[in-house]
Amino acid sequence: MEDAPHHWHFINMRIWPRVVDGVGILRGIEANIKNVDGEIDCSGKMFDSLDLIIAGFHEPVFAPHDKATNTQAMIATIASGNVHIISHPGNPKYEIDVKAVAEAAAKHQVALEINNSSFLHSRKGSEDNCRAVAAAVRDAGGWVALGSDSHTAFTMGEFEECLKILDAVDFPPERILNVSPRRLLNFLESRGMAPIAEFADL
Known about the structure:
Layout: H1 7-11, E1 19-20, E2 23-24, E3 28-32, H2 45-49, E4 52-56, H3 67-79, E5 85-86, H4 98-108, E6 111-115, H5 127-140, E7 144-147, H6 160-168, H7 181-190
Parallel strand pairs: 3-4, 4-5, 5-6, 6-7
Antiparallel strand pairs: 1-2
Helix pairs in contact: 3-4, 4-5
GO biological process, one term: bacterial-type flagellum-dependent swarming motility
EC number: 3.1.3.-
GO molecular function, one term: phosphoric ester hydrolase activity
């Protein structure tokens, strides 16, 4: 994507400290789904430097298609084994088969994001879709992840609108991925990440 960080930025993450000012650092990326084969713009040595890989649809890379094509691309990405979270799957510009996506995500241990920014600043009209996503993940026994998608420090970690969506469908709190460092770390380790020594006491 134009103006995205160079791949060396991500490879260089391997030298970042694990704790800065008392804050644990996970090395991650929000990558782009590129095509119906589920390829993302993260490859090679980048994978070796990253702990957490999120991927989603973004118009400059993958334009909105019909429901079947969008669904095929998202499920292929989920099944690839390369991603941990799918970002803003409730985006109304990208119609998907919500049930099929949620079932694939549960099968492959990939979380679907409920994105707070989708209800405030971007992706207008996401509410109904996100409720459907949350309900489908609930029924499939999968994970949701909460995202502030703040793009600034001022709203980082704000999930108020996300929680309204989860409350509306009685989503089980034990299936919310990122409510504690240990739950997220356990999830990443279950997906193959080596334990991080600096986080052993979290």
